[in-house]
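Components:
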Amino acid sequence: MVEAVRLIDTRERILDSAERLFMAHGYDGTSMRQITGEAGVNLAAVNYHFGSKESLIQEVFRRRLDWLNEERMRILNELESEADGKALKPSQIVDGFFGTMLRMAGDENRGGITFLRLMGRTLTEPSEFIRAFLAHEYKVVLDRYKEALFQALPDVPKAEIVWRFHFMLGATSYAIAGTDALRLVTDWQIEKEDSVDRLDRLLPRLMSFLLGGLRAQLPQFPEEAASDGE
Amino acid sequence: MVEAVRLIDTRERILDSAERLFMAHGYDGTSMRQITGEAGVNLAAVNYHFGSKESLIQEVFRRRLDWLNEERMRILNELESEADGKALKPSQIVDGFFGTMLRMAGDENRGGITFLRLMGRTLTEPSEFIRAFLAHEYKVVLDRYKEALFQALPDVPKAEIVWRFHFMLGATSYAIAGTDALRLVTDWQIEKEDSVDRLDRLLPRLMSFLLGGLRAQLPQFPEEAASDGE
DNA sequence: CCATAATTCATACGTTCGTTTTAATCATAG
DNA sequence: CTATGATTAAAACGAACGTATGAATTATGG
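Structure:
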């Protein structure tokens, strides 16, 4: 057991530093020398343990996403088995997906707020391979949750639900990434009021907004005089 | 007469290429050589005309944002003078801010969809100075629109409105940036259905969602309720 | 205890980056 | 036409990047 201590330590220290630095400065904006410098390990350690910078950030995500997505699946399965065939409430589904992610930020062993902000920021990351990787990691879970929403909202066209899922992801991503990084709108009172109980209050706030948007009146398209879709 | 043609051409060609490349690959992910290469101008032209890469992206934004923010101000002023003292409808305010931005994407002379996507992506851009620059550019307009929402929704706590403005920005940013770049959720039908009439349909869809979220039931915070949990 | 594998280390490689420099080319005014 | 200032062009700068190398160090199994 003692034999692997230094190995694991080095790997974990690199992952921790990379997580924090990618969150703060983005993928392209973070250099290997910054990462290894902050982690207190040799420059070559990243390539030795992970192979490349690309593999490193993938491992940074995998370390957290594996648990998160399994948890999301577990919750949805549990909800559906409890519902016993009946449709779930949209609020249950939304909370299972987005609430689980936000509550993860309270658990420092799972990356805490740092990973959450990295997550929020990376969904619009410029680098092609990162988006491709995330899309792949998320595919199964997203499909399950989309399907659950289809059944929970049988009167809403599927395309509309997909779009609103998209909007919800954006609102969440932004809410997370911006809690204390970007302050286009805020800039005055949010910081003080919510510096401590940030997550306690952010979750209900976001959930209200998401559910309001998800259940909003359906849009009317300007030239809509012909047949409906789907 | 003819004397300024080449100068203006070079400047504009650089700005156009930079706009497109920053949109596609981000700020750090785009090199001066890519920009000048695509624009068909000499590498040194950027530093000659703009001074630095940082100044270049600021000019890329200023070229479009000046008009957009003036238009937003004009619209809000007009709405308020028409209302003649009475409170505006939230939908008018939201449309003035977000609708104006989306409609700008239909005008190719104002950057079209390219600038809109650059905009959406940059709001979560890692580079510190870019976020600071945008925050500064937006300050006046955002304050005016926030104030308008305060008056339009007198029963909603101001902090709540600020948060929901924040969420709306995120949903919009994401909706724009992702229309054909990132496809975490979509990946199947949106592309085909909305490749042509993307903007015609995106605007009503987004507006419904935003207004639903803005007017949603107020959140209940756990510690305000007498009982702890359920 | 020693052979061997695993890990760390210092160092260097080849590229690419943003910027600068200096000379050539252009347009315009006197 | 020529003087002058503005623009473009080619080339190079030093710095930083991700990665690779080979030796030194550490841990492990027989």
